[in-house]
Design a protein that fits this description.
Number of helices: 13
Number of domains: 2
Helix content: over 70%
Order of helices and strands: HHHHHHHHHHHHH
Strand content: under 5%
CATH class of the largest domain: Mainly Alpha
CATH architecture of the largest domain: Orthogonal Bundle
Shape: flat
Structural class: mainly alpha
CATH topology of the largest domain: Tetracycline Repressor, domain 2
Length: 295
Amino acid sequence: MTDITSNRTTASWRDFYEMCKPRVVLLMLFTSLVGMFLAVPGMVPLNILILGNLGIALVAGSGAVVNHLIDRKIDVMMKRTHNRPMAQGRIEPLQATIFAVVIGVVGMTILIRWVNPLSAWLTLGSFVGYAFIYTGYLKHATPQNIVIGGLSGAMPPLLGWSAVTGTIDADALVLVLIIFAWTPPHFWALAIHRKDEYAKSGVPMLPVTHGEFVTKVHIIIYTLMLVVVSIIPFLSGMSGLLYLITALVLGAGFIGWSGVLMFKPKPSTAMDTFRYSIVYLAVLFVALIVDHYLV
């Protein structure tokens, strides 16, 4: 792999943008939007819709930059991450630190001043959980890192909900629980595909420490848990029959992919399962919105 100091060039705005993990942040904003829309019977106030998601995005981007900063030495060892701006030396640690602080402070200011304090502090808690507890400690401390650290990544629906209502409600926590249960099978499928790279980097991901078979068993267990958790919105009255049918069909598909991964895997099966998991979450949350407004 390229040495971390061997490719120093002038940083561009794209490098700073890439450090914010825009695709991950967009998925977070999507689930935040769902939380916002489910929190009210009608339309979300426009100022909250815009400023709430802007603040959440900036703080989430700040956490992503801290992730790049902490992981820059192991990123260079992995094919998936070795071209990242810090791994290639295009951005210096001090530059990244200043950038993370600036966008994080701006995001928090927006949330505190123009949204509400609860959403701001919940967003800050999510930032600390991801940037420091997960990336700085759990990721390198235990093969259950993604399970324990997954809570911070599951927070966006609650962040969106609290931005609108200023409260923490049971239905919002159900949305958090769905993403919390979804995260391990989603990420472990990718970890199986990237097992050799994680082994080389020294990150104790479950496929590295306990092998693929144990990881696949865990994926099946958590997928079954996810299917059960995913029907809670129907049982609690938050959603109706359309959502229930969608959740069961999607869940059957996820179980099917988990079964193929366990019993009839091909070289592409782990990544196919990973990709399906993204489609699963997106369609599931779209079904929540459609059911909420149109049924």
